[in-house]
Specification:
Shape: globular
Order of helices and strands: HHHEHHHHHEH
Number of helices: 9
Number of strands: 2
Largest sheet: 2 strands, parallel
Strand order of the largest sheet: 1-2
Radius of gyration: 18 Å
Structural class: mainly alpha
Number of domains: 1
Strand content: under 5%
Length: about 210
């Protein structure tokens, strides 16, 4: 994943495309592929150390939700517009990573169930990203995706944003629900590691809150 993102950045630099960090890293796809890479790597290290970091489990739930949205939005709204410049990097960030995170969440049982009362954790980052993006679209005219372009009319933008928000909520709730199943691999690890920190973890055994 990091190789794909780096290759895409180098390609854009060599071919004179826009690589201004404020623009290039403004893409939801790029941000969340990088976030997923760091979160999953950190989760692997924590697991190997026999530790349990509760906020990391919620972070995994959040990035899994984000990348599911990335894949869904790309293949339904953006892919029909035209072929990508680098096919393999596009397939990794829009296909492989979303699928990997989905399978990781469904098959790897190394985390305790997430509480429904904390599904809100998916919103702060997404709201900030959307707010910054819409502000930039209205001021300097830059937007990462055509369906967010204010030139198409704010009613259209609002419709797309509203639909994506509803889908994100439904997807997050489904992932939170799926966390109640142990998965096929590492199903005992969630109980076998040490809660960290013990005073704040409380294991969230009251699952259905």
């Amino acid at each position: 994943m990091l190789t794909a993102v780096t290759r895409s950045f180098v390609f854009d630099a060599v071919h004179g495309n826009d690589i201004w960090p404020w623009d290039w890293f403004g893409y939801f796809t790029n941000q969340n592929n990088l976030a997923a890479g760091f979160v999953l790597s950190f989760a692997a290290v924590v697991l190997l150390q026999g530790r349990r970091v509760r906020w990391l489990e919620y972070a995994r739930g959040a990035v899994t939700t984000y990348l599911f949205i990335v894949g869904s939005v790309y293949w339904t709204l953006l892919a029909p517009i035209g072929p990508p410049e680098i096919v393999w990097t596009n397939d990794i960030v829009h296909g492989v990573m979303p699928a990997y995170c989905l399978l990781d969440w469904l098959l790897i049982g190394d985390r305790a169930p997430l509480r429904y009362s904390k599904v809100w954790v998916i919103f702060p980052y997404a709201v900030v990203w959307l707010g910054v993006t819409l502000t930039r679209g209205a001021t300097d005219g830059w937007v990462p995706y055509p369906f967010l372009d204010p030139a198409s009319g704010y009613a259209s933008v609002a419709l797309y944003c509203g639909a994506i928000v509803v889908i994100a909520i439904v997807v997050a709730l489904l992932f939170w629900w799926a966390s109640r199943f142990h998965g096929a691999l590492l199903r005992d690890s969630a109980d076998g590691v040490v809660a960290e920190p013990a005073g704040h973890h409380r294991r969230d055994d009251r699952l259905a809150a």
